[in-house]
């Protein structure tokens, strides 16, 4: 898997990878607009086609992970971990001191990934995700200190 910095031209590739992992995928033009806004950056993982992506926003000394997606056929091979490492490394280089993200309380794979990278539970946002007929789901807020030497 090739991992590369995402530019505005990669919006379509990011959208393709996102759509492989989410029921309500983000459109390429939405992703393009995000990539054009201040502090937003991402990485894309490709084999013959885009199979993984991450989008983040850096603001002041905080990194927020906006989304992370890996295609089902290449899961549990360390792709998400590599995408997170690239994003956390870029954020550290840019002077960020902490990272945070939201994850649905029932998303065990993602929560396990983040906990393994050193993220710790920092709070709960009630009814954060709207799953339409399936109702609303709480999100855990997870936080990582980027200065403590882990991840
Ligand atoms: C969450 C997601 C990005 C993980 O991608 P991945 O490439 O399979 O993750 P990795 O292979 O890098 O996993 C790294 C570690 O995370 C943990 N992990 C990942 N998936 C897991 C699972 N299904 N069950 C338990 N632990 C898991 C493990 O500790 C794993 O290390 P190991 O394989 O050595 O045990 C992927 O499952 C996905 O795209 N899910 C749907 C979209 C999503 O939920 N995104 C996150 C939204 S917050």
SSE layout:
Blueprint: E1 2-5, H1 11-19, H2 28-36, E2 40-46, E3 50-59, E4 62-70, H3 79-93, E5 98-104, H4 108-116, E6 120-130, E7 136-145
Parallel strand pairs: 4-5
Antiparallel strand pairs: 1-2, 2-3, 3-4, 5-7, 6-7
The structure holds coenzyme A.
Describe the structure.
- This protein has helices at residues 11-19, 28-36, 79-93, 108-116, and strands spanning 2-5, 40-46, 50-59, 62-70, 98-104, 120-130, 136-145.
- 29% of the residues are buried.
- The longest helix has 15 residues, at 79-93.
- Helix 1 packs across helix 2.
- A hairpin with a 3-residue loop joins strand 2 and strand 3.
- The mean pLDDT is 96.
- The chain has 151 residues and is an alpha+beta fold.
- Bound molecules: coenzyme A.
- Coenzyme A (COA) binds at residues 21-22, 68-70, 75-81, 103, 107-110, 112-113, 116.
Summarize, please.
The protein is α+β, with helices and mostly antiparallel strands and 151 residues long. The chain is built from four helices and seven strands, in the order E-H-H-E-E-E-H-E-H-E-E.
Question: In angstroms, what separates the terminal alpha carbons?
Answer: 21 Å
Could you tell me the radius of gyration in angstroms? Answer: 15 Å
| Helical content band | 25-40%
Structural class label:
alpha+beta
What attributes does this structure have?
151 residues; alpha+beta; 7-stranded mixed β-sheet; 4 helices; 7 strands; 38% strand; globular; binds coenzyme A
